[in-house]
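To: structure subgroup
Subject: Chain for Friday's discussion

All,

I'm putting the inputs and outputs inline so they're searchable in the archive.
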Amino acid sequence: MSDAESEIQQRVRGLLVDLFGSERFADGFPASVSLREAGLPSTGLVSLLVAMEDAFGFEWDDDVEPEVLRSIDSLTRHVLTLRN
């Protein structure tokens, strides 16, 4: 894993902790696990996506593929793609 990928994953996990106050989001599950399986409700996902827009300085496209929103890994890859 690259330094950039690691940094983005940590920032996403930090956003989850900030939003939901649960340390289990800090490192309580692998980054490849579905956020739904990790206990994030759909309303929580919306909050995370808004926080990511602010943290990373981009806006989500209306036609983003659902798979992009699945896990910390997929969110990280999306942010990396936007940075290139």
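Points worth raising on Friday:
Residues 35 and 45 are 8 Å apart (CA to CA).
The mean pLDDT is 92.

D.
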